[in-house]
Amino acid sequence: MNWMQQTYTEKGDEVLVNNVKSYSKGFWRGLFTCYDAPHVPRTNNDHERFFRQTKTRHRRMTGRRSWNDYILRSGEFVVLVDDALKQENVLERLQLVDYSTFAQERDRWNERLHEGIKRQRFRRNPIQYLKDIESRACALIGQS
């Protein structure tokens, strides 16, 4: 955006610059900066095709029609692992990861799974779930 504002400085260019700025304001920051990464799809069509292929592969593996629970549980790892398995030298690259980094990611993963379990428990029986939380809080502060 800065480059565009500095490059297009003539009298008629301000409409173009303002239009692009207002149009791109809602986009995720950094969306257009990944074009040099060889494993990142370059266009929206490539992104859509990539996600559609991932959804189709999941549906075939599980036999389920929806992949909503799967994507909520697994998140970005669905596409990262799927893409990483297609890349060369993946085992050599994994061996370069130190144990502390692996342990941090594993802890993040376990926390994510735990959040999903809590959501399911709440949806199944919200009153009992809230009573359990309240009783644990009371036990911590010494009330009954």
What is the fold's blueprint, element by element?
Blueprint: H1 2-7, H2 13-24, H3 44-62, H4 68-74, H5 77-86, H6 90-95, H7 99-124, H8 126-141
Task: Output the number of helix runs.
Answer: 8
Question: For the residues shown, what is the average pLDDT?
Answer: 80
Rg, nearest Å: 23 Å
Quaternary: single chain
What general outline do the C-alpha atoms trace?
extended
Biggest sheet details? none
Return residue spans where pLDDT drops below 50 for at least 5 consecutive residues. Answer: none
Question: How many strands?
Answer: 0
Pattern of helices and strands: HHHHHHHH
Residues in helix, %: over 70%
Distance between the termini: 59 Å
> How much strand?
under 5%
Structural class: mainly alpha
Please give a structural write-up:
- With 144 residues, the chain is mostly helical.
- Helices cover 71% and strands 0% of the residues.
- The protein contains 8 helices and no strands.
- It has helices at residues 2-7, 13-24, 44-62, 68-74, 77-86, 90-95, 99-124, 126-141.
- The chain is extended, with a radius of gyration of 23 Å.
Descriptive tags:
144 residues, mainly alpha, 71% helix, extended
Q: Care to give the gist of this entry?
A:
This protein has about 140 residues and is mostly helical. The chain contains eight helices and no strands.
